[in-house]
Amino acid sequence: MSLTILATLLTGGLRASVPPAGAGVEPAASAPTVAPLRVEVVASPSTLTLGNTTVLTALLADGTPWYSFVWAPLPPGCATQNLSSLDCTPTTVGAYRPGVTVTDSTGQSRANATTLFVNSTQNPGSGAVVSGPTYLFAGLVGIGAAVASTLLILLFARRRRRRQPPIPFSQHPYVPPPVRDDR
């Protein structure tokens, strides 16, 4: 209490009236309620090749700002930081469930996780990253091309065997016979 207010109270300068108990006293206003904190985790991309980076993001709804983030468990090679979005470059192949625990300024905590797949398919010697489905697609295209070319070869070979020798021009049905002039 400040010195001015205390002096005024002591000299009787301020008067306050207190209503009798239960007479028209309004209840104190309650603190506003805050919806419970919600969190969702997204990995972009959720499937990657070893050596590539994914971005893990915690999407928040409700709660009371400021938030703290603890990322765990993470794939080997990724480190936790107190951030809502985290770059992660896994160093081991596998399927992972990276998660985050978020705590808001009131102490309310929520945790959630996502699924992350790390594969290691790579074309040796080229340095280009090739996944398993790419090999499967290339194999099917190669098999399809081989079957199509074999069928074409067989079709042309069969066609040649059935071909009749050419008709001499003089015996061709569309050529009118030579006109004789007997005059």
Question: What CATH first level of one domain would be assigned?
Answer: Mainly Beta
CATH-defined fold name of one domain = Immunoglobulin-like
Helix percent reads: 10-25%
What is the count of helical runs? 2
- First-residue to last-residue Cα separation: 149 Å
**What order do the helices and strands follow?**
HEEEEEEEEEH
Identify the CATH architecture of one domain.
Answer: Sandwich
Outline type:
elongated
β-strand amount:
15-25%
Largest sheet features: 3 strands, antiparallel
**Strand sequence of the main sheet, in spatial order?**
1-3-5
Low-confidence stretches: none
- Class computed from helices, strands and strand pairing: alpha+beta
* Nearest-integer average pLDDT: 78
User: How would you classify the quaternary structure?
Assistant: single chain
Q: What's the CATH H-level superfamily name of one domain?
A: Immunoglobulins
| Topology, number of strands | 9
Give the C-alpha Rg: 42 Å
Could you please describe the fold and organization of this structure?
- By secondary structure, this protein is of the alpha+beta class.
- Helices cover 21% and strands 23% of the residues.
- The strands form three sheets. Strands 1-3-5 form a three-stranded antiparallel β-sheet, with no helix packed on it.
- It starts with a helix and ends in a 21-residue tail after the last helix.
